[in-house]
Amino acid sequence: MNLGVDVEVTGLCRRFGGKVILDQLNLSCRAGEFVAIVGRSGSGKSTFLRLLAGLDRPDDGDVRVEGKVLTGLCPSSRMMFQDSRLLPWLRVGDNAGLGLPKSERKRSLELLGQVGLADRVTDWPAILSGGQKQRVALARSLAAAPRLLLLDEPLGSLDALTRLEMQQLIETLVKESGATTILITHDVEEAVALADRVILLAKGRLAHEWEIDLPRPRDRSGQGYVNLTRQILGKVLVE
Amino acid sequence: MTHRLFPWLVPLSLLIAWQAAGEFGWLSNRIMPAPSAVLRAGFRLAESGELARHLGISFQRAASGFVIGGGLGLILGILTGASRIAESLIDSTMQMLRTMPHLALIPLVILWLGIGEAAKVFLVALGVLFPVYLNTHHGVRNVDPGLIEMSRVHGLGRWGLFRRVLLPGALPSILVGVRFGLGVMWLTLIVAETIAAASGIGYLAMNAREFLQTDVVVLSILLYALLGKLADTIARWLEHVLLPWHPAHARSLSSSKPGEIP
Ligand SMILES: Nc1ncnc2c1ncn2[C@@H]1O[C@H](COP(=O)(O)OP(=O)(O)OP(=O)(O)O)[C@@H](O)[C@H]1O
Ligand SMILES: [Mg+2]
Q1: Distances from the Cα of A31 to the Cαs of A8, A67, A190, B131, in angstroms?
Q2: Does residue A206 come out as left (phi exceeding 0), alpha (psi in the -120 to 50 range) or beta?
């Protein structure tokens, strides 16, 4: 099953009050590819992702999804944020099914089961732990079978152990869904563990990229993994 | 002595002292009738049917004024909270009008509408309008923009956004407005009925004053207090029912039942 869309970004520019954040950025993603974006804080990663989602308009250049220039919200994409952004007044099950027609609500319940929260469907979000909230958010963004999945540091606020569990969950569920996925992360190890390609964003441009052709599931103590992680970390620090 | 009864100790002894003062003639009946006298006055008026009539009329005025003013405040608040155009069109006018104490309008309202029902309902509606409007506007405007953004990404249209995000998000604030509004409602009614009325609890009190029936005057005051308390209880109950997800209002969040979307 390959549901993913291909994404083509050309000459993308975004300025805020005269400050250039994205400067002639080019990027193309194959359908179904998993791309991780790393870069320093304030390098414009979130800005870029918002442009891909259609939440913001570029000052110049364009985003093409399946060859079509994006002019509004991208209907085939779903986004996950660093904070879970669950609606406090909807129960977990209704949160996971947000925006879905009644006939497709079953999928959101299935996904809640896959993230291990089948027994929390009727709970209010307020009583979930941070990691559980993010799992609901993951189920919610996958429930609509998105063809483009945008993840803006979804694991940034989780503790190390929960983060590892979530990484495995993301790896399996995303691969299963076949969606083209763009993950922003501060954690270079996470990028190398999950992505087919890692991109370094610096000075508003794509500064470097690495194809990660290590076999999955990835052995985090293997030589290839360790070398790549070190190499990318070095680049992030100098840029 | 159990702790549950403890808070009743002081009011109860005050009541006994009050009754005793009446019995022993320390307190003139003309100044302050004993609790038993007030109670007797209540029974007397209840028997003659007068009590129910005046209560009913006061309640009717309060309710229709509240529905009109509160409804208008709710609609305007949602409009100005959700739409920039509506806000720039209406909000500054509302902010200006709200600085005017509505009770100051009483002479003008009597000139316009006389002392009939319309005048009282108008005053109550005017009084309720502003707290409900302000809190609704504030509530809608302060819904977390992150939630709005998330909902848009998840394919919610304008109506879905309103029904699923803006309205429930604003509801805690709207209910604060409702509670304020209920307070203003009684206060306005007391003033309006005391100044000019031919029926209602306020009239009951003013009429009794002319005949030096202090017991009925005190009874009317207690009735107002009781009604105010009742309104407040209803508002609290509404918060429990409408905000089961809210940590401040829910009795217990974890005792969840499968339920409908609010
Ligand atoms: N709406 C906005 N108005 C003005 N400036 C903005 C806006 N959005 C982002 N910026 C600026 O653009 C720059 C890049 O922000 P962005 O959020 O994209 O960074 P980031 O790479 O995601 O950082 P982090 O890793 O800390 O999340 C920052 O300097 C930020 O202040
Ligand atoms: Mg960011």
Answers
A1: 10, 12, 21, 54
A2: beta
Four-residue CA torsion sign, A148, A152, A157, A160:
positive
Rounded to a whole number of angstroms, the distance from the CA of B124 to the nearest CA of chain A is: 32
Instruction: State whether ipTM is beyond 0.95.
Output: no
Amino acid present at B118: A
Give every CB contact of residue B44 below 8 A, 6+ residues apart in sequence: none
Regarding beta strands A60-65 and A19-29, do their DSSP bridges make them parallel or antiparallel, or are they unpaired?
unpaired
> Structure tokens of A195?
């992505």
* Alpha carbon of A148 to ligand 1 centroid (Å): 22
> For A91, which of B147, B169, B259 is closest by C-beta distance?
B259
Does A81 touch chain B if contact means CB atoms closer than 8 Å? yes
Q: Which of B144, B154, B249 to mutate to test the interface with A (most CBs of A within 10 A)?
A: B154
Q: How far is the CA of A159 from the centre of ligand 1 (A)?
A: 24
Q: Please tell me the total number of residues recorded for chain A in this structure.
A: 239
CB contact under 8 A, A127 and B155: no
Counting from 1 in the atom list of ligand 1, the atom nearest the Cα of A43 is 21
> Mind listing the pLDDT tens digit of every residue in chain B (262 residues)?
567 888 888 989 998 998 998 888 888 878 888 899 999 999 999 999 999 999 999 999 999 999 999 999 999 999 999 999 999 999 999 999 999 999 999 999 989 998 889 999 999 999 999 999 999 999 999 999 999 999 999 999 999 999 999 999 999 999 999 999 999 999 999 999 988 788 999 999 999 999 989 999 999 999 999 999 999 999 999 999 999 998 887 655 654 444 433 3
CA–CA separation, A29 vs A49, rounded Å?
Answer: 13
Rounded to two decimals, the pTM is: 0.87
CB pair distance less than 8 Å for A53 and B153: yes
Report CA(A138)–ligand 1 centroid distance (Å). Answer: 24
CA separation for the pair A40, A209 (Å, rounded): 15
Partner B, chain A 109-138, Cβ-Cβ below 8 Å: 122-127
